[in-house]
Specification:
Low-confidence stretches: 12-21
Radius of gyration: 19 Å
Protein name: MHC class I-like antigen recognition-like domain-containing protein
InterPro entries: MHC_class-I_related (IPR050208), MHC_I-like_Ag-recog (IPR011161), MHC_I-like_Ag-recog_sf (IPR037055), MHC_I/II-like_Ag-recog (IPR011162)
Organism: Oryzias latipes
Structural class: alpha+beta
Shape: elongated
Pfam families: MHC_I
CATH class: Alpha Beta
Strand order of the largest sheet: 1-4-5-6-7
Keywords: Glycoprotein, Membrane, Transmembrane, Transmembrane helix
Distance between the termini: 23 Å
CATH architecture: 2-Layer Sandwich
Number of domains: 1
Length: 120
Amino acid sequence: MYHFFIFIQKTQQIKWLFLLLFAVEHSLTYIYTAFSHPVKLPGIHEFTAMGLLDNRMIDYYDSSVQKKIPKQDWMKEKLQPEYWDKGTQSRQSKQHLMFLWKDLYAIYLWVMILIIKEKL
């Protein structure tokens, strides 16, 4: 049996003031997904993370490549390699945390099953 975990981190609305005349509102969302076991299907990874700016993918990371990759040309051009290195480290940490949570969830389910069986 596979368990699928998803965690969405929605940041507060980000406002930038341009030319002190008007404010433009943007949204920044991070989506993290993890499977409890490796899935042997092409394109499906045990862990995936992506950043969305105004619902447009701006970066991507998965457990196979293990590198944060820019998905917009302006990000490739404007951001330094250090930004991507730090982002890769951050995603690797989140991947590790998701697998710890997954293991804790599996232990929780096992304990609940044992409790239910004892009551029967």
